[in-house]
Every structure is written in structure tokens, then in C-alpha cells.
Amino acid sequence: MPGIRLGFTARRRLFLVMIGLPAVLYMVLVAFWPLSQGLAYSFTDYTLTRPGPVNWVGLENYADMFADPAAQRAIVNTFVFTLAAVGLQLLAGLGLALLLWPDSRFNRICLALMLIPITVTPLAVGLIFRAMLEPDFGILGYWARVWGLSPARGYLADENLALATLIVIDVWEWTPLVALILLAGLKSLPTDVLEAAEVDGASRFQRFHRIILPMLLPAIFLALVMRSMDAFKIYDSVFVTTGGGPDNATNVLMFHAAKIGLEFFQIGAASAISTFMLACVGLMSVSFVLMIRHAERRLGSR
Amino acid sequence: MQTSRRGALALSALSALAAGGASAQTGPAMTLTMACMNDPFATVLARLAPRYAERTGVRVNVDILSYAELLSRITADFVGRTRNYDLCTMDIVWAGQFAEAGHTIELSPLMQRDAAEIAVDDIYQAALLGIGNFRGRQIAFPFAAYVNVLAFRRDLFERAGLQPPQTMADLVTAAQRLTDAPNNIYGWAANGRRGAPVAQDWMIYNAQIGGSILGPDGRPAINSATNARSLTVYRDLFRMAAPPGAVNYDWAARHEAFRQGIVAQHQIWTISIPSYENPEISRIVGRTGIILAPTAEGMPKRYGIGGWGLGINAAIDERRREAAWGFIKWAASAEVQRRFLDANVGVFTRRSVVNDPALRARFPFFSVVDESLANGDADFRPRIPQYPQIQDLLGTAVNAVLVGTADPQRALDDAQARAARLF
Amino acid sequence: MSSRRLARRAGQASLLLALIVFLFPIAWLFATAYKRAGDIFAIPPVLTFTPSLRNFTTLFEFFDVPQLVLNSVIISFGTAGLALALGTPAAYALARLETRWAHTIAYGFLAIRMIPPVAILIPFYLMMRDVGLLGTYWALIILDAMQSTSFVVWMMFGYFRAVPKEIEEAAVVDGCTQWGTFIRVVLPCVVPGLIASALFCIIFAWNNFIFPSFLTNASTRPLSVAMISAYGSNEINWGTMGALAHFSVLPIVALALLLNRYFVQGLTRGVH
Q: CB of B261 within 8 A of CB of B281?
């Protein structure tokens, strides 16, 4: 008997490793190989359109990036954008999810309709908002200017409001997705625990804070990590609305990298920026993981 | 006598038949792919391509792409030698990059060989040398030259009793006089958006005041006194006379503003003129006048030109190159150029077409075009390999000045320092 | 009672408000397809206009719309299929392998989504050239599937963890093979998760723009790229874009509505 069980475990292990291997190999080939090439380029002066030898320049691309005011601003803007947009999406998404939680025909239809913004390609979303916010003839921008709700130049041309406007656009586009993820989390909560709390006389707020929120942490984590990884790579809306302006106010890392890599064709410098981006997102994700683990321990221990 | 004449006729008929038959047999039957900018000429080319196929057996697939996409894709194609595109449209400012990288083939031998067919003398010198020629190498053939002209609202000028501006000073005065913000009328507009839009617009006004991006030695001279002065004027015009949203305008937004009737005058590329007369999209039909772009008092009269050329991928084989060259000759021929203008697409490459009486009668502003091209300035945007970076530097600097976060001289000094490092 | 009714009414009113906010820009875009170009930016802007179908006829003249839709469908469904085929077994393996590294590896998969497109675009482009796949659907499917697989692994990881081991053990005792157990016993438990993952993969691939614009050619180009070709240097052809948006948005909306049940259900378990 024991002999057979040992054999089984080993066989099972082998089976599991074998079925998991294709995905890992795929990642190595499709993701890590080009990525390591990109990393290698980041230490060179490789320019796509300049014939001639490619020279090793060490950390020069990175140094240039940190010394360039446009890139510095891009770093700040990207972090501000990511944290603000994702934070607002989480709050708004949670609110929407709570509203949509009770099961009713109205709620189901609302949810289905609210998923529509996700289905529009992000570049088109940028173009739509740019057209609507145009202060001289946009359907929202014109009236905002005339009624004094926006600066004369419009939201997107104002150094102080442009980034905030892009944040609002991102919140508009992705809150429904966050709401969906959080709603799924809410619907998966064990009803017996909730009912018990209600019977125990806990107030709404207490129920929320002590029971719902801790059990919702995995869903919050999924939404947080997914959205922050995508928000960090924001590009489309910047490209079509402000071109990084006014005066670097909306310059973000991906836009900066794409300009250097796909307009100037300086692959080395662009690779340095994207490697840096990768490191930032990695750090961000790790800190989110630690944060959630910490929160889980604190709240979940009850 | 009669028999011999009949014989001669029969002989010539036979040879003509044979020649026609021969060309139908020897003409290559192949498919070429062309990367085409999505300017108005693209749809005309797409429409005419089947007729070219009927005539020569060469099918040309016109792949229409937006500006950024076009440059990235064809560069990747050329560098990667993936041979996805046999031909491409090349913007005037890309000549330096393309020449340095050897993306497209040198056309001079072909041009010399077929000189009679292409009638080079009929093409405006400024277009021939400006579009596709870099330091003596012709790496693209001009087929869609654009002219920078001033479009103004005749009705607004007449109402205010003003003459259309002849000099830059006139333009500034008219802009101030015609601005009536409470009634949604602004005296002037230009691009303000960071990047290519503002850089290119400022460069043209700068050239008209006598400024220049490059010095006489071909190196950047961005922070010259003249440049700083013209940047100050540009900024002041924005403050005094431009629509509030102009600081974020690109070409699309600016044309929309003009078509909606809120702008009194602005400088444009001729390619956009027909859209003003299209009642489907314009509210100012019949009220636009076109005149020469104004230059500063006392300056030699030079007018900015731009536009597109056609280049042949250096990675394709001889047979395909020959077929591509055939298409280029056809697209740049007087017959096809006339078709563009018939379809209301404003490209002006050949003198004979621009001065054609029938077209002149239909489009009186062609006289402006003729004079502009005769004194065309293709270098107000330096067509050097470092152009993308220089355009970006200027795009940021000028935008910063317009927005108010930088002072003209300082912004230009900064741009100059960075530009110098490129060389 | 009445305070609860009031709360419910207030909730519904807020949802309606949210709906208006989320749907207004879409309605605007769709409306541009029916407007004459001059009305799109009338000054001062108004909501009324005289409808016309001109943009649709122009659209069909210059774009092979059925081909574009087909391309988008092939690319999106292909991506989802490949991602599910690769990611589901991997997620199962991670869930069942009794190792402390399982969580870390799952995070690692998720990390693939962190890669900025511009970092791998040119190397991948050259790689595809070398294997001769440039311009085909496969180049794009392979690249999109990379990001989708990581998502599928992450999603299904939580799902599989929730499937009780007893079911599998019972099947093994009954004489089922390992693979058979996986296919016939475990997978049916996670079908909602599979559908939800598939839907997400389809949506992300459908709307992707940077990769398709580089890796496809005219015959394999999807809708997202075609929509952006309306973005001209002289004018933005809003009418065309609005008309094309109908074909780009409506199929996905229909799909989401059809699978709405699975969508929410699908995420329910996967988040743990």
C-alpha cells in the first residue's frame, strides 16, 4: 500500500509539472527573451535608423533619463496619475458595487450597460473626450468655458488641471471594471456570516468595516494590482489629447518612451525607460502585496 | 502610290497592334503595396489604383495609415527588411532621416533615363529640390506638393473695412482689430499643442519674420535674437487674438474652428482649402479668400512649401523597383495631378497643371499657388536627420512659452543647448 | 419600512445618474455617425441634429468592414483560446502543487502584464520576421496571448484552489486517469471562471491598438487599428470613426450581455 501511494504522489507531481510547463516555456520565449533583449539594448546606444556599430554605453541612458527634466516630470506624473486614478476607481467602484449588490432586474441591466465603456478602445475614448472637452466647440467644454466652470483654455490646456482631467477620463473608463470585480467579491461573501452579524445587532457601518471589508480584500487586491499595472502604462489618452503638454504637465513615462523609441528610433534610450518602468511597477506590486497581507492579518484575524 | 500608302498604313496599324499586344504580354502582372498617408490624396489614389491596374497589370494596394503609424511602420519595415511595403509616401521633413539610413533608393538614374516621360522641367524647382532631395540625392519623387497660404474671411475683413494683410505687421494689426471675443470671433489662430503641431506652425511664422532654426553653418541657431522676437510675437498673438482653446490646437482642431466660423484668418496648407467650401462640413462656404502668406516688411519674398513624395523601398528587387517607378511616374504625371485637383484635393507639383486655364477658372487662388511655388522655401523646417528631435525640442519650448511657464529667450536658450548635443 | 424604500429609491437614482455619466460619451460617439459633419461641432453645441446615413455609406466604400470585424474576431478569440489552453493547466498545476512557491509564481505570471509594450515591440517584431509570421494573425495572437495567459493563470489559480480535493480523490479512486480527472471532473466545476477569463481576454485583445498596428498588414488589420486611421493630420473623420465604432463596440457589448450571468459569477470564486 505505501509503495503505491508514494508512486502516486511522484506521478502526480510529474503530471502537474508537465501540464504547467507549456505556459512557462511560452512565457520564457515570448516575454522574457524579447525583454532581456530590451534590457541589453538599454545599455547601448542602438538607434534603429543609424547604420553602423552599436556601442556599449553602460548606464548612460539611465543617467540621461534621470537628468532630463521632461523625464523627471514624466516619472512624477506617472506615479501621481496611477495612484490617484486607481484610488478613485476603487472608491467609486466600491460605491457602485454596493449599490448593485442586491439582486434585481434593474441592477442586472444597470451592470450590463455600465460595462460598455470598457468595450471602447482606449484611444477612441481619448479622442471622444478631447472632442467633448474642446473649449471652443466641444459639447461639454464650450459650456464649461461659457459658464465659467473651466479656465478659458479648457481643462486639457491648463497646466494645473490637465493631468487631473486625464485622471477623470481614466476613472470614467475603468470604474465599471473595478465595480465588476468588487461586485463579484461581494456576491461571493458567505451569507451565513452576514446574517449572523445582522442578527447580532451590528450596525451597517460595523458590518461593513469589520466583516465585509476584510473578506473583500482579495477582490480589492485583484482590482488594485490589475488596474495599477495598466494605469502605469497610460499612453493612448495622452497621445490624442495633449501630446504630453501643456509643458510636460501630462508627460508620462510610456508616452516619453514611445516618443523616443518610435519617433526618434533611439531603441537604447527607450529600452532604459521601459526597464525603469518595469522596475517601478514591480516595486509597486510588491508593496501592494505586502499592504494587503498586512491588512489581511489585521482585519482578518477577527 | 495608293497601294504603297495603304500598305504603309496597314504596316503601321499592324505594328501598333503588335506593340500594344506586346506591352500587354510583357507588362509585369504583380501586386505592389504602398504605405500612404491619410491625407485627402489617399482616397483619390485608392480610387484610381484599379484603373492603373487595368492599364498596366500592376495592382497597387494603397494602405492608408495615420502619420505616426506611417513613420513607425515603414521605418520598422525598412530596417527589418521585411519588405511589406514596396512604396511609401514620404513627408518632406523625413528626407534627412531616409537619406542617412538608406531606406529608399536613389532615383536620379531612373529620372535621367525617363527624363522625357516625366518632364522634369514642368515640376516646380522648389518642389523637386525640396521634397525628397537631400544633399544632392533624390530619394523620393515629389507628387503632392503643398503650399502655405493665408486663408481669411472676406466678409469679416470687408465688414471691418480692412484690406487682406500683405505683411506680418498687417496680419498682427488685423488680428487685433478683428478679435471680438464676446461674439465668438477671433482674429487669428495657429497650433499651440505641444509637439509637432506647435513646432511646425511657429517655424513657418518664424521664417516669415526672417528667423531660422539652423545657422549658416547648418548647425542649430535656435536662440538667435530674431527667433526670440518672433516667439514673443507668436505668444502675444495667442494672448490677444487666438481662440481660448488654441493653446491646445492641432491642425484638425484649428481647421474645425475656422470651418465653424470663429476665426478670421490663419495660415494653412493648400490641402485643406476645399474643405472650407464643402457645405457638409463647413459653415463658411463662399466666404474664404486665399492670398500669399505675408512676410515681414523688407524681407525677400519666400513662401513655405511642404508636401509628400513617393519613395521606393531599397530592399525590394529590381523588377518590383521598376514597377514601383512606373506607378510613381503615373502618380506624378500631369494627367493624374489634374485628377487630384478635379477631386478637390489641393496638391500642386506641376506648373502646367497649376496654370491650366480650365482649372484656373475654377480655382482662382491657383495664381497664389503659382507664385508661392516659384519662390518656395522648403527649408523653413530643417530637413536634416535630427529633425524629429529638433521638432520635439521646439514643440516643448514653444508650448511652454505659450502656456506661460517659460520666457521666450530662456526657452530657446534651453532648446539650443539640447539641440547642440545632437550634433 | 419607508426609510428602506427611500434608501432603495436613492440607490436607484444614483445608479441612473451613474449610467448617464458612463453612457453619455458613448452616445455622443454613436451620434456622430448619424450627423452631417458640420453639425458635429456646431457652435454653440446643441444636442439636436438632422440625421443622415452618409457616414455609413462612405465607411463601406473605403473599409472592408466585414473583413475588419472578422479579423478582430479571429485575433480576439484566438488569443482567448490560446491563453486558456496554456493558462488553465498551469493554474491547476500551481493550485495543486504543494509548494510555498505557488503564490509567488502566480504573482510572477501576473507580473508579465507589467511589461510596457514599447519594451518588447521592436525585438518581437524582428523575432516574428525571422520566423516568417509577420503580418499574419499568429504574430498578434502569440503576443496578445502572453498577456492574456498571465491573466488567466492568475484568475484560474484562485478558482482551482476553491475546488475541493475530495472530488478529485474520489475520481482517482474510481479509476480515472490524472488527465481524465482534470478534464472531466475538475474543469466542469470552474466553467464560470473559464468563461469570465475568456471574456476578459477577448475584450483586451479586441481593443488593443499598439501591437496590431505594428504586426498586422492591410488584410489582417483589426477594427481598433482601422478606427484610428480616421485620425488624420488635417482633420479627424469623426463620422467615419463613429460609424466604425458601432461595429467595434456592439459585438463586444452583445457578447458581454449574453455572458453577463457568467461574468459576475465567473469572478465570484476567482478572487480568492
A: no
Are A256 and A205 within one domain?
Answer: yes
B259 contacts C38? CB cut-off 8 A: yes
Grid cell at residue B241: 487674438
Compute the distance between CA of residue C145 and CA of residue C154 in angstroms, rounded to an integer. 14
Q: Are residues A4 and A115 in the same domain?
A: no
Which residue ranges in chain C fall short of pLDDT 70? 1, 37-38, 231-236, 261-272
Pairing of strands B87-91, B133-134: unpaired
Question: pLDDT tens digits for A277-298?
Answer: 989 988 888 888 788 778 777 7
Look at domain B31-146+306-363 and name its CATH class. Answer: alpha beta
Each residue of C188-213: pLDDT tens digit?
Answer: 888 888 888 898 899 889 988 888 88
What CATH number was assigned to the domain covering residues B147-304+379-420?
3.40.190.10
The answer to whether residue B255 neighbours chain C at the CB level (below 8 Å) is yes
Chain C, window 58-77: residues with a beta carbon less than 8 angstroms from a chain B beta carbon:
62
| Angstrom distance (rounded) from CA B373 to CA B351 | 9
Residue C78, classed as helix, strand or coil, is helix
Q: Which of A50, A72, A130, A136 to mutate to test the interface with B (most CBs of B within 10 A)?
A: A136
A37 and A87 share a domain?
no
User: Does the predicted interface ipTM exceed a cut of 0.95?
Assistant: no
pTM: 0.87
- State the CATH number of the domain containing residue C167: 1.10.3720.10
On whether any CB of chain C is under 8 Å from the CB of B352, the answer is: no
Decide: B125 and B137 in contact? Cβ < 8 Å: no
- Interface check for A13 against chain C (CB to CB < 8 A): the answer is yes
CB atoms within 10 A of CB B307: 27
CATH number of residue A124's parent domain: 1.10.3720.10
